[in-house]
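Re: that chain you flagged

S.,

Sorry for the slow reply, it's been a week of failed gels. I finally had a moment to sit down with the sequence you sent. For the record, here it is as I used it:
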Amino acid sequence: MNSFITRTYYHSCKKGTPAYVLRNAPFKSVIKKKGGDVKVIPFLGEGYYFYEEDFEAAKYWGATHYKDYSTIKILDANISELDLLDINDTKSIRDFDRLRDIYIKKIPKYKSWEINKWIEFFKKLAIKNKDESLFPYNYIRAIQYYKWKHAKNQFGVKENFSQTTKAYYTITKSLRILCVIDKHKINCKEKKVVV
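Prediction finished late last night. Pasting the structure tokens below so you have them in one place:
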């Protein structure tokens, strides 16, 4: 059974006229070359990045990366769970790990790859083999743990379940990010410029 998650997402970009930003945003985060064969791959691979339900995080990101920035809001985006690789979902990551294990057995040095390299590998493999089942996702979702020095809110706060034991805890105030591979497949109620 296919179910959907519905959330609001925010994307910050270089400042432009509201009409230009609305027509063209989101903008793609691409793989960059850094001398020779060294590639800098974005966090979840090449794609369009959003913060889930967190306008403040998007504003902060925009302010730290651009002199002037704009932020768009994608209201009520419907994402099919069949199109979603959720790095923090147990079933989703187990399926992804099974696929990784197939290639690690063939080429053991792949075991040290970061997740963004695996994502790009499977995207290219699916295109090369003309087999979408190798990487059937348009959306990749993860929790980002990163302490921004000057953010109003810190993300990834460790909180204990009880006073009696500190061994068991959870992480609250997680910062969820979404990487969209094909922005034309975003199904949403409304898109607007909010900054």
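What I noticed first: The longest strand covers residues 69-80.

Talk soon,
D.
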